[in-house]
Amino acid sequence: MNRLLLLCALAAFSIAPAVAGSFAGSSAGASSAGSSGSSGSSSGDDKIVLQARDDAAGFVASDGRIRGVVLEAAMQHLREDSAAARQASDMELAQAILAR
């Protein structure tokens, strides 16, 4: 299982950068234009996405059958912040989270 998870994660790293480029930095870009209070909340939002990496790895490795609650929260956050993320599939978002 660990070997399968590692292989899936490595595959995601080679595929996801193209997908991630369109929406992965959206919250960071929004915070740079805002106030310092906004930038503090943005770093917390990015933390949500970073904490979803384990769930994203499980999601990708299981071909979408394992859906963790932290991953669900991160995908919701990304979709609220980015039009590109709203257009992406759950698998594309999970791969983008792994590529961060």
TrEMBL record:
Residues 1-20 form the signal peptide. Residues 23-46 are annotated as: Disordered. The keyword Signal applies. It holds the Pfam family DUF2388. Keywords: Signal. Residues 23-43 have a biased composition (Low complexity). This is DUF2388 domain-containing protein. It comes from Luteimonas notoginsengisoli.
